[in-house]
Amino acid sequence: MSGAPRRAARRRSLGQGASRALLYVLVAAVLVFTVFPFVWAFVSSIKPDDELFTTPVRYWPGRATLDNYRLVLANGEFQTALLNSVIVAVSVTAVSLAVGSLAAYALGRFRFRGRSLVLYVVLGMTIFPQIAVLGALFEMINFFKLYNQLTALILTYLIFTLPFTVWVLTGFMKAIPREIEEAAYVDGATHWQVFTRVMLPLSVPGMATTGILAFIAAWNEFLFALSFTQTPDKRTVTYAIQAFSTTSSGLYEIPWGQTMAASIVVTVPLVVLTLVFQRRILAGLTAGAVKG
Question: What's the CA gap between 47 and 58, in Å, rounded?
Answer without folding.
Answer: 10
